[in-house]
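Design request, tokens follow.
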């Protein structure tokens, strides 16, 4: 390739962001704008007896007041579980749930106006522990009326293939362990922010920090009872998401309603505490997992029972319930597989999608147990893993289609680079190495709202001045998708990247894209963009071939020239544009991506289906102080199979970001609640890793070149987080001989385990 594809390319928005020129939602100011103040519940679970808004309504700084009954239509990211309201209607379900809202002339007036709203509550039984939610309770105690059998279970997902229980009983070696994972949040830099503008023509414009403009668009139309064509959703620069902005949110509905009511622009921007209260982070989880193998280290069976703390509302919970089980089908060949997951409702903020959605916690359990089994049978943990990898071009037991697979090369790479063979099990006490592998989807093959339409559409326009304008609904959230679109256009047409302009993430001007989640953008939007630009190139080639009497099949586009290898044609890009547009003017071509038909016909067969899967292998080196329990992750060797690295700079950044986020969940991050009240809703008490905590990283990109991805590309944004946590956990065992089954791995837990070992 002669263009930018495959070359390290700085992000096209990088300069704007580092110089402060990029416009985020909260940066926008509009004349006559109002500001939102929110009334939040002090109770985890209570009936709303009465709301008195009369004093607030009379406040001279308050323009409008809204309560739950004003916006009664429920919503949710998944149409199968729309259980959320913009504001609580009959009862509150977590501390911090929005009960009422005001729109006022200033932020201060909004806060004071909200304080003048009086709410009378009648507390009812709280369900804070998910184990309590499994028990039968009274109808009046249920968190939601629609749950069955008087229990607070949101979703039960269960699949069994080839009698795993029987296979485990017959396995020569078996390991059963219990694991517990704390809830963690996304810790993105930019808080939630939304601006709504009710226009003079009875249309609504919403500017919001969202990963999913399309789904926000649909939910706004539903909740406000407006036609889709009267609503425009725009996503400006976004300061991180990691899944935390992939739901439609209550504050977006409230802001839009208040703008419609006042006919003025209205803004709502959260404080950091409000971001924590809203959450939608990774689910607290407990699991009991059993894995068996034979004397040669071949995995014979896996079975697991998982309880997921979903919080008060559904969010992505139905998907999460399945992902915890079905994504155990890789990277290893496991023909006898079973799982049951139960996602409970509890009286805490809802959990949702977070980087590596649904598979990070189970991956930790699998990789730790495989390490245990390797030790039990006297086999090197790397060797055991190498024996069990899925081959390329195969189907898993649950009908996941594996195409390209570079996991063996990944493991061989980190094993060699870390000097594993000479150092594992041989380092001084307190130092150790640990290995783990990972596996994740490159976009879900099924859209959230099932339909017959493409997953994404991209328009490419050739204009008189030789510009290419790309129109895409894809959401740039820091992963480099805007840069990718420009790279593809420049590659196919042989033009500089500065000849390509973008119109993105605007439901009025761009075609539908489903958003940035599930690592779908590179694979799906990339394929659509490539198709659109190829059509532009082919149309140009036909027109030029006709005028210059050459074969269109022999025409090449490279270095701002259009030519044939035999020299019969050699013209500048500008001349080619003039020829192509003669008699027709500017023209637009569309590309699209439709997922291939995948999966089986059993219930739950749609979960985890993807057109391609990424793979990875990591080795961590740690130093553990047995006297203090302090863990220092000193170095991580990472190898990730991303198919083809369209932008190696971006891929390396995604892997490094995954390491940093995984480190936090492994050793420090933990959302702590007392009676449903979060106790560490700030970055002082909620401990994300600092720059000084970041280990040395040795990153290797493995290119397996998937046959269906754009230029062979697969995902690189979420898969790399999966091996981080278990490689650290396994390294701690090598360092001090203790297995950590509860995350985060804090010094007190280390000390307790060390003391237990000493006594034994």
């Amino acid at each position: 390739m002669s263009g930018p594809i495959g070359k390290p390319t700085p992000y096209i928005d990088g300069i704007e962001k580092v110089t402060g020129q990029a416009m985020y939602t909260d940066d926008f100011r509009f004349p006559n704008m109002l500001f939102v103040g929110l009334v939040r519940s002090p109770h985890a679970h209570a009936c709303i007896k009465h709301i008195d808004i009369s004093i607030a309504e009379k406040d001279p700084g308050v323009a409008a007041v809204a309560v739950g009954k004003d916006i009664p239509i429920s919503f949710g990211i998944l149409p199968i579980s729309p259980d959320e309201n913009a504001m609580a209607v009959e009862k509150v379900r977590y501390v911090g749930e929005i009960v009422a809202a005001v729109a006022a002339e200033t932020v201060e007036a909004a806060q004071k106006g909200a304080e003048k709203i009086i709410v009378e509550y009648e507390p009812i039984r709280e369900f804070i522990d998910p184990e309590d939610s499994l028990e039968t309770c009274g109808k009046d105690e249920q968190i939601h009326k629609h749950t069955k059998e008087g229990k607070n279970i949101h979703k039960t997902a269960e699949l069994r293939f080839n009698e795993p229980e029987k296979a485990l009983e017959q396995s020569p070696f078996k390991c059963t362990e219990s694991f517990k994972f704390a809830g963690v949040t996304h810790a993105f830099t930019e808080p939630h922010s939304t601006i709504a503008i009710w226009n003079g023509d009875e249309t609504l414009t919403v500017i919001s920090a969202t990963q999913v403009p399309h789904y926000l668009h649909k939910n706004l139309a539903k909740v406000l009872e407006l036609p889709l064509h009267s609503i425009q959703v725009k996503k400006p620069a976004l300061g991180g998401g990691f899944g935390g902005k992939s739901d439609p949110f209550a504050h977006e509905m409230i802001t839009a309603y208040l703008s419609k009511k006042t006919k003025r622009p209205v803004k709502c921007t959260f404080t950091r505490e409000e971001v924590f209260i809203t959450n939608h982070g990774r689910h607290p989880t407990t699991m009991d997992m059993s894995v068996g193998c034979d004397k040669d280290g071949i995995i014979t069976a896996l079975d697991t029972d998982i309880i997921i703390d979903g919080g008060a509302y559904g969010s992505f919970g139905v998907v999460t319930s399945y992902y915890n089980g079905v994504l155990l089908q890789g990277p290893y060949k496991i023909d006898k597989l079973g799982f049951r997951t139960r996602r409970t409702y509890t009286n805490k903020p809802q959990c949702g999608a977070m980087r590596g959605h649904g598979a990070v916690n189970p991956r930790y359990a699998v990789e730790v147990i495989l390490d245990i089994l390797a030790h039990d049978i006297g086999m090197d943990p790397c060797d055991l893993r190498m024996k069990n990898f899925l081959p390329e071009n195969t189907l898993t037991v649950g009908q996941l289609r594996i195409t390209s697979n570079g996991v063996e090369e990944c493991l061989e790479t980190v094993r060699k680079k870390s000097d594993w063979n000479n150092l594992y099990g041989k380092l001084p006490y307190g130092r150790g190495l640990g290995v783990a592998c990972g596996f994740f989807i490159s976009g879900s093959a099924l859209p959230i709202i099932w339909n017959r339409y493409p997953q994404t559409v991209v328009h490419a326009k050739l204009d008189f001045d030789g510009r290419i304008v790309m129109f895409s609904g894809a959401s740039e959230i820091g992963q480099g998708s805007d840069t990718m679109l420009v790279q593809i256009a420049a590659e196919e047409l042989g033009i500089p990247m500065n000849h390509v302009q973008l119109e993105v993430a605007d439901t009025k001007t761009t075609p539908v894209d489903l958003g940035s989640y599930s690592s779908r953008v590179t694979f799906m939007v990339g394929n659509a963009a490539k198709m659109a630009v190829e059509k532009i190139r082919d149309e140009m080639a036909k027109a030029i071939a006709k005028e210059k009497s050459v074969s269109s099949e022999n025409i090449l586009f490279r270095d701002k020239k259009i030519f044939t290898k035999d020299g019969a044609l050699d013209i500048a890009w500008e001349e080619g544009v003039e020829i192509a547009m003669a008699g027709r003017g500017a023209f637009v071509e569309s590309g699209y991506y439709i997922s291939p038909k995948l999966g089986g016909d059993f219930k739950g067969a749609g979960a985890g289906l993807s057109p391609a899967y990424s793979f990875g292998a990591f080795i961590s080196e740690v130093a553990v102080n047995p006297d203090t329990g302090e863990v220092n992750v000193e170095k991580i060797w990472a190898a990730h199979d991303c198919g083809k690295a369209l932008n190696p700079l971006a891929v390396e950044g995604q892997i490094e970001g995954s390491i940093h986020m995984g480190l936090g969940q492994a050793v420090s991050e933990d959302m702590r609640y007392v009676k449903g009240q979060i106790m560490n809703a700030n970055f002082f008490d909620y401990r994300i890793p600092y720059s000084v905590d970041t280990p040395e990283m040795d990153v290797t990109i493995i290119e397996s070149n998937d046959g269906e991805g754009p230029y062979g590309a697969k995902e690189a944004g979420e898969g790399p987080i999966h091996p981080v946590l278990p490689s650290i956990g396994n390294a701690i065992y090598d360092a001090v001989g203790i297995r950590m089954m509860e995350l985060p791995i804090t010094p007190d837990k280390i000390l307790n385990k060390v003391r237990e070992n000493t006594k034994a």
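Comment from the thread starter after seeing the answer: thanks! The longest strand covers residues 613-624.
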